[in-house]
Each structure stands twice: as C-alpha cells, then as structure tokens.
Amino acid sequence: MQGAESDQHHGSQLHRAADSSKHQAACVHISLTTLDATLTPKLEPRATLPERRLAAVRQLHAADIPVGVLVAPLIPGLTDHELPSLLSAAAEAGAQHACYVPIRLPHGVASLFEQWLEQHFPQRKERILNAIRAMRDGQLNDPKFGSRMSGQGIFAEQMSQMFAVACRRAGLREEHAPLSTAAFRVPSRQLSLFES
Which of 11, 114, 164, 178 is the most buried (most CB within 10 A)? Predict the structure, then answer.
C-alpha cells in the first residue's frame, strides 16, 4: 500500500485499536533496542530506526491506546548502559509501561552472535560474552523456565535493579495495565474453512 491508501488503512487500524483500548482489551508494546541509529542497522538490519519507533509510541499515545516499550534484547556490555536514556525517551514519547529481556542465544544463535561480535565489536567480544555467561549459569544460553527471560546471578540482579530505578525515574510502570475480556463477544456463527 502506498500514499493515501496506506494512510487510510493505518488510520482505521488505529481507530479499531482505540475502540478496543476503551474496553481495556488492547495495549501495544513497541520494541526499543537502542537509541543509537548507527547501532540499529548492525543489530537489526532493515528494522525501523529508533526515532521511528518513538514516533509510533507518540502516535499510539495520542490515540489513547495504552502503549509501552519492550527493551530487548538488552545486551550487557553493549546496550545496557542505555537503559536510563531508553526509558526516559520512551516516557517522553508517551509510553506508560516498560519491560525488558536480557539477550537470549538459543541453539545456533549463539555462534551467529559470536561471529557478529567478532565482525562489529572484536575488542569487546569476550567482555560481552563473559557477562552473558555470568547471567546464564556459565553458558551463553539458559533454556530453563523461570530464568531464561531474566537471567540469574549478580549481573542479572544489577540489570533488574537498574531497570527498576530507570522506570521509577522515567515514571513508567513495570507492568502494563490489566486487560479485560468482558467486552468480548463469541461470534454467532463459526465460518467453515471450506465455505466458498
């Protein structure tokens, strides 16, 4: 879609989301990895730049749609120092809540990440990998439920405390507003997959 047609489609999507948010049936999370526009293309090739993500937060907030940011992946030794400025920028754009996930490196992603560090940050590679291992029980990945999304150990605790302090300073909640299914109505007739 291009031009006016795209704007009209985008506007109708915002209108539907705003209607849902009146019933506490919708909220949106925008991922925000870094504010460094030179790092974004390295971390997330072809992904939206930080200022565009913050613009989306502003637009959602202006439409009265509950919006928050997901700071992920949060990479110790590479992006974790940005946490206070990330959350501050998100709050200024209208975000009401935030959450984060430390970097996870399951399966073949670990070796890809090591190669990526070697290519882009060779001098910091071992420091970053050691910080990840310190959060992942000596490994580059921890698949265990309960710790895989937050990490464990001193570095994980420091990251959690830094996040909590940065949220308080920015005026962000660490959880989104509760959602409700009270306005949901079961369709009167289920369409068949094979109906013409």
Answer: 114
Residue 16 pLDDT > 70, yes or no?
no
* Residue 128 CB neighbour total at 10 angstroms: 20
The two three-digit tokens of residue 27, written as one number: 């909220």
Label residue 26 left, alpha or beta by phi (over 0 means left) and psi (-120 to 50 means alpha). Answer: beta
Total number of domains in the chain? 1
Helix (H) or strand (E) run with residue 100 in it: strand 97-102
Percent of the chain with pLDDT over 90: 65
Range of the domain at 121: 25-170
| DSSP character at residue 193 | T
Question: At residue 168, does pLDDT exceed 90?
Answer: yes
Q: How many C-beta atoms surround the C-beta of residue 179 within 10 A? A: 14
pTM of the model: 0.80
Q: Is the dihedral of CA 190, 193, 194, 196 positive or negative?
A: positive
Q: In whole angstroms, give the CA distance from residue 177 to residue 196.
A: 41
Dihedrals phi, psi of 134, to nearest 5 degrees: -65, -25
Confidence band of 74 (pLDDT split at 50, 70, 90): very high
Report the C-alpha gap between 38 and 90 in whole angstroms.
19
Would residue 185 count as lying in a domain? no
- 177 in a structural domain: no
**Residue 102, SS3 per DSSP:** strand
- pLDDT tens digits along 124-140: 999 999 999 999 989 99
